[in-house]
Structure formats: structure tokens, C-alpha cells
Design a protein that fits this description.
- The complex is a heterodimer.
- By secondary structure, chain A is an alpha+beta fold.
- Chain A contains 15 helices and 9 strands.
- Chain A starts with 7 loop residues before the first strand and ends with a helix.
- By secondary structure, chain B is an all-alpha fold.
- Chain B has 15 helices and 1 strand; from the N terminus they run αααααααααααααααβ.
- In chain B, α12 packs across α13.
- Classes of the chains: A alpha+beta, B mainly alpha.
- β6 of chain A pairs antiparallel with β1 of chain B, so a sheet runs across the interface.
Chain lengths: 367, 402
């Protein structure tokens, strides 16, 4: 007897608990196995790039906050670097150190969220997520001290930062940095050797380094595939060349590696912040720059190693107060392009985990 | 603490008096029987119904503590009225039957899930003389009756006309049917020791030592299988929130949804009671009356369920099946065989020194099979600089200010 079977097409999203926002996947299933997948996005499109053409250079900073809203500081940094390059403004040294501290704290917070939601997608009922929220909360408190905001900071300015570190910041940061390795150990104890996590993620959805490079994947996903490419080392911006840190690289490129690389990167970020705290000089926190910047005609591209990958801003100036064109290279948008290759042949449950390991943020994907 | 039983006996007598006064003809004795039967049924149905909101509250508070937050604490003292508020809120929601759904099956499914769960309580003993029936195949009855739940789950999944619900139902059927087998075989150990399937006889055997000490392996298998039967973590595939939204519950709202939730809770209470009866000497205990002891044990086992739920991620569907067939099934067979040998060798009661031996056997078998089946993990180091570092190249983009 032969049974007649047919493939089922399921729309996963845009309203779904684990598509990380309003993301939709049109998936064809053979039983539980994914046979085809088409990502559909644009539900959160706000026209950031077009809006930027109508704003002054300083106003655009607030737009960048709303890209990857879990890593606003990194977005600020990438944009500010591009604008400084375009206008030829050199920030003072103290500002650069402050920016590095902020960017690395942001990386820890963003990776906390990435790992927490990844474990949540694996089906752990929010317990690790809540633990990681606890640490993210402390980082947000630190950010609140320096700029008063908790999500959309707009802390960085072209030529520096909006304000100097308040006196209570450094003791709080020291306390946090001393505590954080212990918390990371706690995550590791809970998660790293958990048999279910290992059996769910190991050797699953391997992303070969060639494919990763061809698809222009960046960030922890690329490094998990064994490619040692970190913009902080490869093309140092700000003061990253003065710090000693390692770039965690995964041996195989499976989902477990993507998980471990993020875990290790949190440790390295702690190391960087520690060194930055020791080296930070006194001095002005902001260079002299006019309130209304009119950069000379030309174009500039600046990129940073954001938590999710290479975040780049490409600005074209025609000499006016707002850019002629602003192109954003959003890392999670480009990382998402390999989703189809990664998930075909895996099961429905794996598909969710793979999407979690890509760590997308719809604010950034749809822009 | 006999006042409780006395009260019931008194009440029964009063009712009997009333009914006999209304129907003086002694041939009407069946009415007395009927009324008293309804009374007991009323108590037995409402006991779990009252326990479920309480357990939901306890679960949410416990999960809150596990997750480093407070949990419900606004409605009533310590938030204890939260489940009631939630119940009112859900029940006043519109009862939606989706277009294209099979209306009859869709409506019947919650009942088909709820009824078997309630039937469990007919045979669970709450005291030496406190049970509805002392069925001679008690434990078999429980297993058989709860297996019917699968049909209700599949009805719900099929009738919803929703792909997520269908996924949930497909998973549920595969999972529930597979886990019935280790469940039943692990019970065999207990039945062999007690020499009876009557639940009260099983409790009587445990008057000196609870059976968990003689049956550690059986207890672990039974607990895992029950977790799977109840769709508790890590086997909560049927309603895996991050994957298939709510599984079979996706299209249900209003009272029907409440019925599913309550049925789940009732099954949880029921199975906690069964675990307590089989392995933790049921209602027996010093000082307190039997039903209170059983309640304490139900809460204890429920706490373990919550603990696993708060800690473990979910298995994948094929891993769940592998775990049932390759791991639990052989273990339960071995457990039954070892117990049978022990029961034959020490036919007049197992000696207490077998307790450490059985624990050693349990640990040895689990570790051995773990190694053999290969259901294991190993850690991996993410090495800094493990791959050749790419050379730093600047991007081929013209710098504006250069």
C-alpha cells in the first residue's frame, strides 16, 4: 500500500513567538522537514535611508538608534565614524575610549539577548533569558547614567560624545566588570554542557566558510565558521589596536559554535572594557565641531564590528546640511541571506533554532 | 482526624434519612445509591477542579522564583486570586470556531480530553477507606483511561483546520503512543513487588519502605514517561510555543480553551497522585490524615515538574522518539526483569539491604546505556585564532575626506 503524501506550505510569521519581530518565512514542509524556505520581510520598513536624506547630520544619530534597537550604541558609533570621516573631524582621545567602552558594553548586552532568545527558541522556558536580562539590566543602568536613556541612547556625537562620564559611572562600571565573568561562568555552567542543548545544536546547520564568505556573512556567524575576521583586528577603528584581546573562532560552523562564539565574545568584551578603563585619559570628551555640519563634497564609508556583524554606513555629501545618500550595510540583513541554505533538510524545531542562531533584529533588517 | 470521615458518614446518613422519607417504599433503595453516588462524584470532580487553579498559582510563583522575578502578586493576598482573575478573563472571551473547522469534532475535543483526566480520580485512594472504587485492575485502569486523551488531542488538531494545530496533533500522537510503553512496563516493577494492581494494596506494601527505594530506576523511567504523557518539559512538543505557537490550542478560545488548560492540570494532579501512590507510599504518613499526606506528596511531585520545566530546553521530535524507544524502553524491560528476579528470590518481602544495591544497579544501567546508545554530548573549545587570520584589507570604497 502506498500512502499519498503532500507537502504543506506554512507561513511562519509575521506574528509568531520566535521570529524575532515581524519576520515571515514561507516554508514548505515534508512532514516536519523543511524542503523550501522563502524569507519575506519589510513589515518594519520605515525608510531610514530616505529619512536620513532629509535630516541634518546630527539628527541622523537618532535614526540610527532605531536600527538594531538592541545595540543602539554600536549603530551610533558606526554612523558617527562615517560622518567624521566625511567631515574630517578628529574626536579627542577620551571620547574614543568612552565610545569603545560603550560599544563593548553594548556587545555584552546584545549577546546576552542573542543567547537568551536562542535558548528560548530551543524551548527552555525563559529561565536563561531572564538571567541574561538581569545582566543586560545592569548595562542599561550604566547607559542611563551617561545619557539618561535606556534603549535609544543617541549618546555619540560627531566629534565625540554628548557628555562626559558622570563621577558615579566608573565605580559602577568597575563593579559590573568584576561581577560579569562570574555571571558568564553561570551561563556556561547552565548551558554549555547541557546535553539537550548539545544534541539540539551540535553538527546542525553547518555553514561552510566558503559559503559564509561568498554570502558576505559577518560577525559571530562568520567567525563560528572558522573565518578569523573581526574588524576590530582586521581594520582597527577608534583605539582598538591598543587593546589585547582574542577573536574566538569556531571550528566547524554549526549552531553550537555560533552559540559558543557569542559566549566567548562576551568574555573578550569584558577584557577590552577592563583595559580601556585603565588606559582612559583625561581630557575633552568632544572635539570642536559646528552644530550644523556641512561636509565637503565626497563620500565616505565607515564600518564597525557591531554585535551582529559588520555594520557599515556609506554617506555621500553634496555639500549640504544633510547627506545626499545614506546607505546602511545592516549585518543581520545580510546574515539572513544564508538562512535558506542553512535550514533546508532540517526539521521545524531546528529551523527556529537556526533562525535564533543567526540573531537577526528586524529593526535592522527592514530599516 | 477522623472527624472528616465522620462528617461524611453523618451527611450520608442524613441524606439517606431524607430520601427514605421522600420515598418510603424500600424498593426505591437505588435512589439512595444514586444520590450518594452523585455526591461522591461531585466531590471527586471538584477536588481536582479546585486544585488546578491553586497549582497554576504555585507553578507561576515557583517559575517566578526560578527565573529571578516575582511572579503574580497583585490580585488578592500574595496574588493568590490571580488564577481566578485569569479564569474569568479567559471565560468571558468570545468562543470562536474557525471557518473550515469541523464544528462537531472541534466542540467535542475538549470534552474528550477532559473526561479521561477526571476518570483517573475514581481509583486513586485518599485514605485507607477513602476511594470511589477499589478496582481490582486499578493501575491498569488509569493507564488505559489516560491513553484515551490522545484521541481528544488528535481531534482538536484535526478539527481546527490549522497547520500548527495539525503539527501539534501529529507530534502528540506519536509521542503519547510511544511513551505508553515504557510507562506501563515501568509500572510492572511495582505491580510485581505488590503482587496486585489494586492501588490500595500497592500503598499497603509501602507501609515500612516507600517503593522508590526499591524501584529507583522504575521511578525515573515512570517520571520521564509521565512527563512525556503530560506534555511537560522537556517533552512539551505538542504545544512548543517557540515552534508551533500553541499547538492544538492555537484555534481554541473561551471556555473550550479553559477546558484544555484544566484538563492538563487535572491530568497533572492525577499523575502526581499516581506517582505518590506507586512510589512514595501514597496516603500513608505519620500524624496527618491520609488525604493531607497525599496532597503534600502531590505538591512535592508537582514542584519537581515545575523545576524541570524551568530548567530544561526542549528535545526535537525525533530525539523524543529516540529517547523513548532506544533508552527508556530497554531500561524499563531490564527493570522489570531485575525486579522479577528479586521478587522470586525474596518471595516474602524484599530485604532493606537491597536498597543500595538497587540504586547502584539503576546508576550503572543508566550510565551504561547512556554510553551504549550514544545519547551524549561532549564539549568543544572555541579557540582564539584557531583558523588562519585573514589579512586586513581596507574596503574598496573611496574615502570622502582623504
Amino acid at each position: 500500500m502506498t500512502l499519498k503524501t503532500e507537502e504543506v506550505m506554512v507561513n511562519i510569521g509575521p506574528q509568531h513567538p520566535s521570529t524575532h519581530g515581524v519576520f515571515r518565512m514561507r516554508v514548505t514542509f515534508d512532514g516536519e522537514v523543511v524542503t523550501d524556505l522563502e524569507p519575506v520581510f519589510g513589515y518594519l520598513h520605515r525608510g531610514t535611508e530616505k529619512l536620513a536624506e532629509e535630516r541634518t547630520y546630527t539628527q541622523i544619530i537618532t535614526l540610527t538608534d532605531r536600527l538594531d534597537y538592541l545595540a543602539s550604541m554600536s549603530n551610533n558609533l558606526a554612523y558617527v565614524l562615517a560622518a567624521e570621516k566625511l567631515a574630517g573631524i578628529e574626536p579627542p582621545e577620551r571620547a574614543m575610549y568612552i565610545r569603545v567602552i560603550m560599544a563593548e558594553l553594548m556587545r555584552i548586552a546584545s549577546h546576552c539577548m542573542a543567547l537568551g532568545f536562542f535558548i528560548n527558541d530551543l524551548g527552555a522556558l525563559a529561565t536563561p533569558l531572564m538571567y541574561m536580562f538581569r545582566e543586560r539590566e545592569k548595562i542599561l543602568d550604566l547607559f542611563e547614567m551617561v545619557c539618561g536613556a535606556r534603549i535609544t541612547y543617541s549618546y555619540m556625537r560627531i566629534g565625540g560624545v554628548s557628555g562626559d562620564l558622570p563621577p558615579e559611572f566608573m565605580p559602577a562600571l568597575t563593579k559590573f566588570i568584576n561581577e560579569m565573568p562570574g555571571y558568564i561562568d553561570e551561563y556556561e555552567a547552565l548551558l554549555r554542557e547541557n546535553e539537550i542543548i548539545i544534541s539540539r545544536t551540535k553538527d546542525m546547520a553547518i555553514l561552510p566558510p566558503e559559503t559564509a564568505i561568498n554570502a558576505s556573512v559577518s560577525g559571530p556567524m562568520l567567525r563560528a565558521s572558522g573565518v578569523d575576521w573581526d574588524l576590530r583586528k582586521a581594520d582597527p577603528y577608534e583605539v582598538y589596536d591598543r587593546f589585547e584581546f582574542d577573536v574566538p573562532v569556531g571550528p566547524t560552523g554549526d549552531t553550537y559554535d555560533r552559540f559558543l562564539v557569542r559566549l566567548e565574545e562576551m568574555r573578550e568584551s569584558v577584557r577590552i572594557v577592563k583595559q580601556a578603563m585603565e588606559q582612559i585619559p583625561e581630557g575633552p570628551f568632544r572635539a570642536k565641531a559646528p552644530a550644523l555640519i556641512r561636509p565637503p563634497k565626497g563620500e565616505a564609508y565607515a564600518h564597525v564590528e557591531a554585535p551582529k556583524g559588520e555594520l557599515g554606513f556609506y554617506l555621500v555629501s553634496d555639500g549640504a546640511i544633510s547627506p545626499y545618500r545614506c546607505k546602511i550595510r545592516a549585518p543581520s540583513f545580510i546574515n539572513l541571506t544564508v538562512l535558506r541554505e542553512l535550514s533546508i533538510g532540517w526539521k521545524l524545531a531546528d529551523l527556529i533554532v537556526i533562525l535564533g542562531s543567526v540573531d537577526i533584529n528586524m529593526g535592522e533588517v527592514d530599516r | 482526624m477522623d472527624w472528616f470521615y465522620e462528617l461524611w458518614r453523618e451527611l450520608g446518613e442524613v441524606f439517606r434519612g431524607w430520601i427514605e422519607a421522600i420515598f418510603p417504599d424500600s424498593a426505591e433503595g437505588w435512589i439512595t445509591y444514586l444520590v450518594l453516588g452523585f455526591l461522591s462524584a461531585f466531590v471527586l470532580i471538584n477536588l481536582p477542579m479546585v486544585l488546578v487553579p491553586l497549582l497554576i498559582y504555585v507553578e507561576r510563583r515557583l517559575l517566578g522564583r526560578f527565573q529571578n522575578r516575582v511572579g503574580p502578586n497583585r490580585v488578592g493576598p500574595f496574588g493568590i486570586l490571580q488564577p481566578i482573575a485569569d479564569g474569568i478573563k479567559i471565560m468571558t472571551k468570545e468562543d470562536i470556531i474557525p471557518r473550515g473547522a469541523d464544528k462537531l469534532v472541534f466542540t467535542l475535543a475538549p470534552v474528550a480530553v477532559m473526561a479521561p483526566a477526571l476518570l483517573m480520580f475514581t481509583v486513586i485512594p485518599f485514605g485507607n477507606e477513602t476511594f470511589l472504587t477499589n478496582l481490582n485492575v486499578g493501575i491498569l485502569f488509569i493507564v488505559a483511561v489516560t491513553a484515551v486523551e490522545t484521541i481528544g488531542v488528535f481531534m482538536a488538531g484535526w478539527a481546527s483546520n490549522n497547520k500548527y494545530a495539525l503539527f501539534g496533533a501529529m507530534r502528540a500522537v506519536a509521542q503519547l503512543v510511544s511513551y505508553e510503553i515504557p510507562l506501563v512496563i515501568s509500572i510492572m516493577g511495582v505491580v510485581l513487588i505488590a503482587g496486585s494492581m489494586v492501588l490500595n494494596d500497592i500503598v499497603a506494601v509501602q507501609s515500612s519502605w516507600p517503593l522508590i527505594l526499591f524501584q529507583p530506576l522504575g521511578f525515573l523511567i515512570f517520571f520521564a514517561a509521565v512527563s512525556a504523557e503530560l506534555n511537560r518539559s522537556p517533552f512539551d512538543l505538542t504545544e512548543a510555543e517557540s515552534e508551533i505557537i500553541a499547538g492544538i490550542h492555537t484555534e481554541y478560545s473561551g471556555v473550550k480553551f479553559v477546558m484544555f488548560l484544566t484538563a492538563e492540570g487535572i491530568a497533572l494532579v492525577g499523575y502526581s497522585a499516581v506517582i505518590a501512590t506507586l512510589y512514595l507510599s501514597g496516603w500513608e504518613g505519620p500524624g496527618l490524615p491520609g488525604y493531607l499526606w497525599l496532597l503534600v506528596k502531590i505538591f512535592f511531585i508537582f514542584g519537581i515538574f515545575v523545576w524541570t520545566r524551568a530548567t530544561l530546553p526542549r528535545l526535537r521530535v525525533d530525539q523524543v522518539m529516540t529517547f523513548a524507544w532506544k533508552f527508556l524502553f530497554p531500561l524499563s524491560l531490564l527493570n522489570a526483569a531485575i525486579t522479577a528476579v528479586q521478587v522470586v528470590v525474596w518471595s516474602d518481602g524484599l530485604p532493606p539491604w537491597l536498597i543500595p544495591v538497587n540504586f547502584a544497579i539503576a546508576i550503572g544501567l543508566i550510565a551504561g546505556l547512556h554510553k551504549f546508545v550514544g545519547f551524549q554530548g561532549e564539549t568543544r573549545e572555541v579557540v582564539p585564532g584557531g583558523a588562519e587570520r585573514l589579512t586586513a584589507v581596507s574596503r574598496p570604497v573611496a574615502g570622502g575626506s582623504e
